[in-house]
Please model this.
Amino acid sequence: MTRTPMVPKEVFFTKGVGRHRNRLESFESALRSAGIEKVNLVRVSSILPPKCKVISRKRGLEKLCPGEITFVVLAEASTDEPSRMIGSGIGLAQPVKGEQYGYISEHHGFGMKSKRLGDFVEDMAATMLATTLGIEFDPETAYDERKEIYKMSGKIVRTRNCVQTAEGDKNGLWTTVVSAAVFLL
Model:
């Protein structure tokens, strides 16, 4: 019997925020905002398959079928503390060579604004890919400097991020943010 590997052919990125008096319903609302509430999510780790094409959110959402098993790299954060900053982010680093795998990173937490969180997750993905590709760099240098080294190496073609931040609801409702890389087989 021949094994057929389940390797995603496409990926898209989405994000959302939800608020509700119950935490679970806040999460559901965030998934709705992201457009992925109608599928059964299965969390996976951080590898972008070789030759996996990045498509638009709109095109990706159109391809989802209600109830289907859908693999995602998902970051989520929730709070019921008024004004507390929460964030979730997904970073991507793609290698130049299409037959090489790339990396997707995820992070969720408190206190980071969108720009800082975006740079953070992008940096994590790029650093993981750079170490795999043998790119030499000083991990103590700022991300902007390392980003130039990565690009100049000619081995990393693209980095990007998808982040969602929000402040906790002023009336104490649960606030949830999600960011996701959604794989399509």
Remarks:
- The longest strand covers residues 156-167.
